[in-house]
Amino acid sequence: CYFFTIEFGLCKQEGQLRAYGAGLLSSIGELKHALSDKASVKMFDPRTTCHQECLITTFQDVYFVSESFEEAKEKMREFAKTIQRPFSVYYNPYTQSVDLLKDTRSIENVVQDLRSDLTTVCDALGKMNKYLGI
After folding, report:
1. 30 a known binding residue?
2. Which residue range or ranges hold the Biopterin-dependent aromatic amino acid hydroxylase family profile domain (predicted)?
């Protein structure tokens, strides 16, 4: 799915076809081809898209389009949940990386970060309520 999203992804925006894939955005020839009536465009479904062959020396045989960029992200998240693996993953906004949650220690670290964030939010709410007289 990576190849047909991150590299060659298409989505609709205000009813028009838009490219968000880096491979399309960096190749005017491929971009023109993908947006032309010569290209085969199918609706994005990760379960079928992941089986599509990726071409590296020619234009793609098929491109996949989502109703929106948000829809593509949500479909990928749901698809990722179905992948069998002995761990979970967590996006760490502080390091801008994906952490593996593979043991109790790594999960405890995430919980500690969440507690800290919730404490900050609760403190801010308390100050706002006090300021507003609530």
Report:
1. no
2. 1-129
